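Fold it.
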Amino acid sequence: MNLAKVLGSVVATRKEESIEGLKLLMLGVAGPDGKTTGATVVAVDAVGAGEGEYVLYASGSSARQTKATEGRPVDAVVMAIVDSWDTDGQLRYKKGRDG
């Protein structure tokens, strides 16, 4: 699993039939401090995440192991919305808190 921040959505009106109806998100890969690294990934949204939220995503063959993506040609899937995290005993992020 990887940590990322939802930067926005991706719209593709023409796509492979097996991915019709899937919501695509643009993610900014994040470090333990929550800052994005500059790397981005497009992922299928399996949990209803929104712009600005921190999420956990899986890539590679693991991305095809959710109900939304099983048997579909996807390489990344958002599978959790992050509520909080801490490192070294210090709270680094809490959803809904400014900063």
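The mean pLDDT is 93.
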